[in-house]
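Q: Could you write out the predicted structure for this multi-component system? I'm mainly interested in how the pieces pack against one another.
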Amino acid sequence: MASDAITVPVGQTEARPWVDELHQWLTTVDHKRLGILYIVSSLLFLAVGGVEALIIRIQLMHSHNNFVSPEVFNRMFTMHGTTMIFFVAMPVLFGFANYLVPLMIGARDMAFPRLNAFSFWLSFLGGLLLYFSCVGGSGLYGAGSAPDVGWWSYAPLGARAFSPGHSSDYWTLALLVSGFGSIGTAINIIATILCLRCPGMKISRMPLLVWMNLVMAGMVLLAITPLSAAQIMLLIDRYLGGHFFDTQAGGSAVLWMHFFWIFGHPEVYVLIIPCFAFMSEIIPVFSRKPIFGYPVMVAATVCIAFVSMSVWAHHMFTIGMNSYANSFFTLTTMAVGVPTGIKIFNWIGTMWGGRIQFKTAMLFSIAFLFQFLIAGLTGIMMAASPFDWQLSLSYFVVAHFHYVIVGGILFALFGAFYYWYPKMTGRMLSERLGKWHFWLFLIGFHLTFDVMHLPGILGMPRRIYTYEPGRGWDALNFIITIGAFIQALAILVFLANLVISYFKGARAGNDPWDAWTLEWSISSPPPAYNFATVPTVASRRPLWDLKHPEDPDSRYE
Amino acid sequence: MSMLNMKSSTLRLLAQGILLLFWSAMAVWASEPKGPSPHGTNIFAPASTPAKSIADLSVFVLVITGIIFVVVFALLIYSVVRFRARAMDAGREPAQVYGSTQIELAWTIIPILIVVVLFLATARVIHAIEDAPEPAGAVEVTAIGHQYWWEFRYPQLGIVTANELHIPLSDPSHPTPTFLQLLSADTDHSFWVPELAGKTDLIPNHPNRMWMDPQRTGVFLGQCAQYCGTQHAKMLLRVSVDGPEEFASWVHGQQKPAVEDAGAVAGRRVFESNACINCHTVGGTPADGRFGPDLTHLMSRATIAAGAAENTPTNLRLWIQNPSAIKPGSLMPAMKLSDADLDAVVSYMETLN
């Protein structure tokens, strides 16, 4: 756009020595830089976790395959799960929250910039600790090894009797350390949203992204703390002679399951709610309409947060709870589908009557809606606990949660990348590479995860490094593996797009999508101080009001 | 009104069509070549009451979710196609609509009603399976999960065996269901034979219970479903459902002490003078270890190493010589026997009918 020359201050274009630049990145307390650090570090871990997934898929390509040993396979699925949840999904979402929340509420930074930097470095250190197990896992006396206890580290498999050496200690420390980082970030997000909103930005006028990140941060506080407590108890068991989870001394394996899943299920919503947030910003802009039912969307989010705190034992339907407990968790789990359904309807309601522009960000959002619908419905199937007695711990569950995490969260994230990359870098991502990325990833995703439901129905348990021929699983697994490689190819296209567009992309200007929230009112990338003058808003869409003075939103609110 | 009726019946047809496709796809996969006798592990081919009531509930849930899918998917596709931006819009903005209380109420209340229906249907099945009383004729079995094999004890019958569970056919008019008490000796495991019942975990310090009343004879396959360590994958499970006479004769055979074959004295001596007896029991001999499978009637079993290999002399020899060749990470140590001792022990094992 024509205003580029004005919006990029002259001083910023001068090249600094790289040591200076590096020093600035390492010591920064700027929420935008920390956001980008979060995002870049999670992309690194995404590549590592992706390679682990490919190793798993090669091994399972056909029955009795010998690509890796059972020990290596078990380490791969443990590291894949832990990496993807704790060091990809959470940091990348925190990164976007860090970057966007202050911009969207007209603030100049997060409430606690130094806590922000501290939290990021804790999270990153956690990831490094996890991978340091590959060097120091067995202690000083032998070659290292990654943990192989599964990403839940169910008791008593995580006890010293069954996991000697230090590999699972690195797992514990990694989660503990990054957990403190997450708690710090959550406190920061809450404080920022409650205290730093610009004049006129009442809590009922905040963009939905801000609302949903507020809810997410609250859930982090409630979910991460029991996990951290459990990790400390596990360390006490392993090194100070405790017996919390030590079944050989009267401890309880089920106690660990409760601790883990009272973290684990809210965690799913900690990950998906920021993605709902992306959808609630992207879909309106590319449909050219405000979000349908803003108050209902807020209420549904809060409702999901409450109900999802009481569904954790649906991960434990097979542990032999009595019929009342199973019925209770069936009911709560099905109930959480209602507010989630309301959200899907509201997004469709937003598109209804709009003029939908099929930019790459919107394509990913539409695919998100489709896949999240299916993921929700398979979720309802497993909420019916007897059905879950068959499906739980099988490949059906693996397909289901990858439908949520890849089909839902990752697709929404890709949408967010295409939508906000111009703001973060000042350059547009290539739409041509974007379409390649989208269609390849869509095909690969469905080839892998649609098919993956079937071996579960045919009795294939998860976490097995090989299987017997003649069970009807071979052909299915082969197709799944092909799909995984197509997805990997799509990710390479995406990474190439990120790099190439950074240098060669078209200039974005302030507001490439003709959007309505405050981050688009300032230059791309924004200056360190964000807003030269703190804005004042009169409605939920301040830029709409600016662009349409004859028909501002503020008239209706 | 009739329009509405027609619409919903069309939708149901559509949903059934999708289901049918789904079924036939599964039937194709399930019918891939498999051995003559063992049944597969398809959760939609139940042979016992718990598996059957789960499959019925599953179909009900699938139909409901299928209908929801078709409706929402149609709405999504319609809005994407119908409301796409066109050249003639010339950059004008569409009407700005902020919401509608009536519509929000509709799409809140209808899902709540669906949830109530699904919940009631589910709660019935939970109660029917979990709270089923144990009838007088029931067979009781204690199943104990070990890293990486199954121990089965029949307290009423005085039988101990491993990996291959034998249970009687249950005639619905005179039910003889089998009730399993599930225990674990080490880590968590899960007992899953999809065509007989849903899975239930075996957790140390946390006894569980499950039951099945098979109505077809034959061998049913399954395996450990809860990750339990290195060889979780090869903790396979076979349940042989026997007719009344077959079951009685199996019980009779298992109750006898081990066969004493004069031709295998050398092998028996090797077995009893090595560490074998620390872990294995052979009924009626000094071997009374309980860490590994009971070998009293080893030859009555079709497989060794928890289903990882067929029970042939060659496999047995390989297993004793180097368990890692069959099941790397198995807790059975390589015994480092001389070739002569190895042959002797294998021929001793061969006599344990």
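A: Regarding packing and overall arrangement: DSSP finds 18 helices and no strands in chain A.
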